[in-house]
Design goal:
Number of helices: 10
CATH class of the domain at 3-149 and 170-197 and 250-257: Alpha Beta
Helix content: 40-55%
Distance between the termini: 30 Å
CATH architecture of the domain at 3-149 and 170-197 and 250-257: 3-Layer(aba) Sandwich
Number of strands: 8
Shape: globular
Radius of gyration: 18 Å
Length: 262
């Protein structure tokens, strides 16, 4: 990741840490539980969540693993995560500030290594994925969860234009086919995979990025989305609901194993 993009990510998530924590943790306990179940954590696991944000997944794992760590590039997110840990009095958890492309952990340390909703902020997610593989044990599992971009070129372009307007740290919501090629190139075997449709309020989605209706980027993104409704030209299945819009994100969930280990 270039220094310029690293600063963009840190700036965006420092600015939105409070809003992100509210809408990412407080409002979606059922989705969080679903992701934990998909990961199949074991009582003996040492777990690592890369790009952990305010620590929701790490804290949810804590009761089902031996120890869970989270790491994030943005110090303010780590501050929020530690505050949530203290609030919930969870002992078997730790949070670090660091770069997904240079994880500060020894080779073959963790039984479960996850990265959620972070690859679309990375210009080269393969660099983070290779680091995840490096710190995973030979018999370990990797969990990758991220939004999926449309396969259609026209929808893909508009979809990512709207995403980038909302969040300048966004690089690309990659296609399912792109993820599958990435996993194959990195020598990973897919143990489980599924796709979920995640409906959400456009207004809440904007607030999570620090944008209210008065902001220019909110207005530009909303106009593009409204104009895309005929024929679903952006791949969001948008539906007007009063002064709000219901949008749908496709989300890929993949449980993998580093099968290239001898």
């Amino acid at each position: 990741m270039s220094k310029k993009h690293r600063v963009t990510v840190q700036k965006q998530f420092t600015k939105t840490a409070d809003a992100f924590s509210k809408y990412a943790i407080r409002d979606t306990p059922e989705v969080l539980a679903e992701k934990v179940e998909f990961a199949k954590p074991q009582p003996t696991d040492l777990a690592l969540d890369v790009g952990c944000g305010p620590g929701a997944f790490v804290l949810a794992l804590a009761g089902q693993v031996r120890f869970a760590r989270g790491i994030d590039l943005t110090e303010e997110m780590i501050r929020q995560a530690r505050a949530f840990q203290l609030e919930r009095q969870v002992a078997n958890v730790a949070f670090d500030c660091g770069d997904a492309e240079q994880l500060p952990y020894p080779i073959a340390t963790f039984d479960l290594v996850s990265c959620q909703m972070s690859f679309h902020h990375m210009p080269k997610p393969e660099l983070a994925l290779k680091e995840m593989i490096r710190v995973a044990k030979p018999e370990g599992r990797l969990l990758v969860i991220d939004t999926l971009g449309p396969e259609s070129d026209a929808k893909f372009e508009l979809h990512n234009k709207i995403e980038s307007l909302r969040d300048p740290s966004h690089t690309s919501s990659r296609r399912l086919t792109t993820f599958l090629h990435l996993f194959e190139d990195c020598g990973l075997e897919i143990l489980r995979q599924t796709m979920k449709r995640r409906p959400r309020s456009f207004n809440h989605w904007m607030l999570r990025a620090g944008l209210e209706s008065k902001h220019k980027r909110y207005q530009e993104a909303r106009k593009l989305l409204e104009d895309s409704i005929p024929g679903d030209r952006g791949g969001y299945l948008p539906t007007l609901q009063g002064d709000d819009i219901l949008v749908v994100h496709n989300e890929g969930m993949f449980l993998l194993t580093p099968s290239h280990f001898e």
